[in-house]
Amino acid sequence: MGPLNERSGLGYQCWGSAEQGPLTVAWILLGQGASVLIETTLLWRWLPAAAVPDGALILTVLWGAFRGWAPGLIAGLAAGLMTSWVSAAPLGVPLVVFGAVGACAGFVAAHFHRGSPWVIGGMMVGSTVLAFALTILALQAAGWPLAVNRQFLIELGARTVLNTILALAATPLVSALAPAPGVVSPVVGARA
To answer: Is 64 left (phi over 0), alpha (psi -120 to 50) or beta?
Structure first.
């Protein structure tokens, strides 16, 4: 990943390598969209609130961890937009939350071994807590005060454990879609 410089004509793809093409992005976006729809239409009816995983958050964190901060940010903004369509929260809240979490996952993963289950688990715990904290702050800034009580903390703990378990289970799939760390491919048609 590198900057696109129009003067020199150098640019790098942010999403996928030339061998993979845009199909990897389509799979991640499709997975995020499906997880948002399943979470908001089916799981909320059948499961208690604490037992509903956040699939879009899991995919955003994993994509940021395996691809870097810029793809994590873009995937987070896409997940935030999809979540905004089905959420009662103001439009900017999910965008800020998912975008920040995706970018943070990329920054953290840049300093650790990305494939380690301990790192992925720790990143998911931190990302779930960060998402809850940013949601509270953003909703309070929008004029929607939230009460942080025992029920809220129980839900946070249960969702953190569930998201971490599902992230560890989904790690092989997402790592197969993402190229190896450090692989950068030039944009087709860019001048050398």
So the answer is: alpha
22-31 burial, b if ≥16 CB within 10 A, otherwise e? eebbebbbeb
**CB-based contact 107:100 (threshold 8 Å):** no
3-state secondary structure 154-191: HHHHHHHHHHHHHHHHHHHHHHHHCCCCCCCCECCCCC
Q: How many CB atoms lie within 10 A of CB 49?
A: 12
Q: For residue 119, give both structure tokens.
A: 């790192």
User: Amino acid identity, residue 85?
Assistant: W
How many CB atoms are closer than 10 A to CB 161? 15
Angle at 157 between CA 86 and CA 165, to 5 degrees: 80
Q: How far is CA 158 from the centre of its chain?
A: 19
Three-class DSSP category at 13: coil
Could you say which DSSP state residue 7 is in? T
**What distance lies between CA 138 and its chain's CA centroid?**
18
Q: How confident is the prediction along the chain (192 residues), in pLDDT tens digits per residue?
A: 444 434 433 333 444 444 445 667 788 888 899 999 998 888 878 888 778 889 999 999 999 998 889 989 999 999 999 999 988 888 889 999 999 999 999 999 888 876 688 889 999 999 999 999 999 999 888 888 888 899 989 999 999 999 999 999 999 888 887 765 555 554 455 555
List the beta strands (DSSP E) in 16-150: none
